[in-house]
Design a protein that fits this description.
The chain is an alpha/beta fold. It has 16 helices and ten strands. The protein binds flavin mononucleotide.
Length: 328
């Protein structure tokens, strides 16, 4: 087995999975700016069992994204076994991750995502099913506690299984996506788990990421929302950039991201790019009018025009001058 986790430089700065966001285009952008490893959006193991072709599209990637980890979710060990085989053979990523943290009702109700933490015997079967059906390193991404079922007990229950990495979203199921990060649980997990431990949750900027790393003693940090509009966070974390990126870099990156997104997804790429553009524009002072424009883009040409306008200063003083022709 090629356990890429062992060969990563430390600390490891990972792009954590974000459904609807960490697609191939965004992963390439983050990788290009220094992410050490990137995760796919969560993909359903059950969907792999029934309609593999369309599900494969969610996890396809480009070689430049390596090391790349595909994240699977579900509740049925047989489906995980099928999905692990298909992903290993047809996608050939560097690792497979299992989602133990998703709190969304439609996932949780089926016993998947964070609900797996409430059923340690099933959690064990799921992990075993994946390990037995791939030669790739297998990891899990968890919460600290789900309805009284805590991470440390789960780790004890699966201690003998060959898991290579663990990303801990340091919050409980009840906390969803906000509130304090349970540093102590991650610290304790670091002493008990034999593979790589990544701390996650609340690293909204470089300083908070480095603080999370230091306080938890983890091998690295998983960055999720902190990368939105600021994929430079990886360069900042790695010490390659002090302060904010230049306006020109932000705009060039936004345009390249849009080009990739549209090339890979067509019309859907355009729609999905609207939110990314708004996030990028948060880096540009006084870009309110540009955001109003960003949510209406219909083509790459629209993005290029937006970027050209944002490159000048005049959107701040005379917001309407850039788009006078369209009467904005
Ligand atoms: C919109 C959104 C989508 C997410 N999708 C996933 C996912 O597909 N798989 C997963 O394990 N976690 C997912 N998460 C959780 C994040 O990976 C991360 O654990 C959480 O946002 C906390 O990290 P942060 O504070 O750096 O954002 C998602 C979170 C958000 C806000």
């Amino acid at each position: 087995m090629n356990n890429f986790w062992e060969n990563l430089k430390k600390p490891v700065f990972a792009l954590a999975p974000l459904s609807g966001i960490t697609d191939s285009a965004f992963r390439r952008v983050c990788k290009g700016l220094g992410a050490d490893v990137v995760y796919s959006e969560l993909a359903s193991s059950t969907a792999f069992a029934y309609q593999a072709e369309s599900t494969l599209n969610i996890v396809r990637f480009h070689e430049s994204e390596r090391p790349y980890v595909v994240q699977l979710f579900g509740h049925n060990p047989d489906h995980f076994a099928i999905a692990a085989r298909i992903v290993t053979k047809q996608i050939k990523p560097d690792g497979i991750d299992i989602n133990f943290g998703c709190p969304m009702a439609k996932v949780f109700r089926k016993g998947a995502g964070a609900a797996l933490m409430t059923n340690p015997p099933l959690a064990r079967e799921v992990i075993q099913a994946v390990i037995e059906n791939t030669d790739l390193p297998v990891s899990i991404k968890t919460r600290t506690d789900v309805k009284g079922f805590d991470l440390l007990s789960l780790l004890e229950h699966v201690e003998d299984l060959d898991l290579k990495a663990l990303m801990i979203h340091g919050r409980t199921y009840a906390q969803r996506f906000s509130g304090p990060n349970d540093i102590e649980t991650t610290r304790e997990a670091r002493t008990r788990f034999k593979g790589i431990v990544l701390a996650n949750g609340g690293a909204a900027n470089c300083a908070l990421g480095l603080e999370l790393l230091e306080k938890t003693g983890a091998d690295g940090v998983g960055i999720a929302r902190g990368a939105l509009g600021n994929p430079w966070i990886f360069r900042q974390l790695n010490g390659g950039l002090n302060g904010r990126p230049e306006r020109g870099d932000v705009l060039r990156t936004a345009l390249e991201h849009a080009r990739l997104s549209i090339e890979l997804k067509g019309r859907r790429g355009i729609i999905e790019m609207r939110k990314h553009l708004c996030w990028y524009l948060q880096q540009i002072p006084g870009a309110k009018i540009l955001k109003q424009r960003a949510v209406k883009i219909e083509s790459l040409a629209d993005v290029a025009e937006l970027v050209a306008c944002a490159a000048g200063e005049n959107h701040v003083r005379e917001p309407s001058s850039c788009f006078a022709a369209e009467g904005l």
